[in-house]
Amino acid sequence: MRLGSMWRDALSALVREPATQQYPFERLQAPEHLRSKLHWDLTNCTGCGLCAKDCPSDAIDVIVLDKKARKFVFRYHVDRCTFCSQCVMSCPKKCLEMANDEWELASLTPDDFLVYYGNEEDVETVLAAAASNGADASSTDTE
Fold this sequence. Notes:
This protein is an alpha+beta fold. The protein has one domain: 2-Layer Sandwich (Alpha-Beta Plaits), CATH 3.30.70.3270. Helices cover 26% and strands 17% of the residues. It contains four helices and five strands. The strands form two sheets. Strands 2-3-5 form a three-stranded antiparallel β-sheet. A two-stranded antiparallel sheet has the order 1-4. β2 (60-66) and β3 (71-77) form a beta hairpin. The longest helix has 14 residues, at 120-133. The chain is elongated. The relative contact order is 0.17. Residues 136-143 have low confidence and may be disordered.
């Protein structure tokens, strides 16, 4: 590289706008087909567990409390998920979907990576059982 072309580039950079975005103050829209955090809809779920069986990273647990009364708790390990969308494709009732706007999933505590979906009382039952067994189930995110 010649010294003259380097100075020309340096001087032109002084008068141009920066090429970087000021994230997080200026956020761009996520791509339409981005696969991000998994969401579960309790209304159509039958508790078949195909999503958990087909998950290659073992990130999903369907906890069946009472199948006749349709009491299920969906435990989702965000830190294990590879966002492959296999669970969404294998769900026969279309109860699962991957959000495309929740892509900022970093956290300082591991409790934020364990998400529980279901009715609040059912989630409380599962958490109480897990606490009595000594399992790590201290975080909830109910919907």
